[in-house]
Amino acid sequence: MTRSDPSKRLLKTLRKARVGVFHPPDEDGENLEQQLRRIGCQVTTHWPPPSTLVDDLDVVFFLDGPDYQDLHQPYSDSRSAALVAIVEFESPLEIQRLVDANIHGTIAKPIQSIGVLACMASALGLFRYESRLTARIDKLDEMLKTRRTVERATQVLASHRNVSEDEAYVMIRREAMNKQITIFEMATSVLNADQFFTGI
Questions:
Q1: Do 14 and 40 meet the contact criterion of CB atoms below 8 Å apart?
Q2: What is the pLDDT of residues 109-146, one digit of tens each?
Q3: Which of these, 70, 94, 99, 96, lies nearest to 83 by C-alpha position?
Q4: Please, which residues have CB within 8 angstroms of residue 40's CB and are 6 or more apart in sequence?
Q5: What pLDDT score does 65 carry?
Q6: pLDDT of 45 over the 80 cut
Q7: What span, in angstroms and rounded, lies between the C-alpha atoms of 60 and 44?
Q8: How far apart are the two ends of the chain, measured CA to CA in Å?
């Protein structure tokens, strides 16, 4: 079995991409849309730009500038698509603002066919890498939350039953198995019960 060509995999990924173009219907907007369609992307155009991102978009190219930056803040907050800013000028202040907003890529006007493919590929790659990191962090946060909850429940049960924390943990785990629930759910029940009886 031979491994597939990475460039072919990349092109296949880009051709499946659902792309939103938030730009006035002028020459630049039409050039961008045509190039994206030549690549094979599924393109939708929006102007004026929507207040929130459509859930089914993978990449969004949006016109940026002083007149539009308030419109685009919800985009960077949502983190649901790769974001590419279309900039009319490259002042240090504007570039820093885009960096602070965690925009995944930029493309300058006037828009030409060369550069669109590379820009979209790098932006989408960065967005997907960022998404994997975010998912990993969320998973670690959940694991830490579970561990802290189980530790607190173990201490509470050990104190009430006058047993060691190791014995209390075994009790929680056994009861969770009997009830067919997770240890975290069982530990939460222990803490809720303790809070209830403490408040009486």
A1: yes
A2: 999 888 999 999 999 999 999 999 999 999 999 999 99
A3: 99
A4: 11, 14, 15
A5: 80
A6: yes
A7: 10
A8: 69
Copy the structure tokens of residue 172: 């929680």
Rounded Cα distance between 112 and 108, Å, is 9
DSSP structure class, residue 191: H
- Report the alpha-carbon distance of residue 121 to residue 99 in Å, rounded: 18
The phi and psi torsions of 72 (rounded to 5 degrees) equal -95, -10
Predicted TM-score (pTM) of this structure: 0.76
Phi, psi angles (nearest 5°) of residue 82: -70, 135
The CATH homologous superfamily of the domain defined by 6-114 = Response regulator (3.40.50.2300)
Amino acid at 81: A
Domain 138-199, CATH class in plain words: mainly alpha
What element of type H or E holds 106? strand 105-108
Q: State whether residue 42 is helix, strand or coil.
A: strand
pLDDT band at 1 (very low <50, low <70, confident <90, very high): very low
pLDDT (tens digit, 9 = 90+) per residue, 61-114? Answer: 999 887 776 666 677 777 789 999 999 888 888 888 888 888 999 999 999 888
The dihedral formed by the CA atoms of 149, 155, 160 and 166, expressed in degrees to the nearest 10: 110
Q: What residue segments make up the domains of the chain, in order of their start?
A: 6-114, 138-199
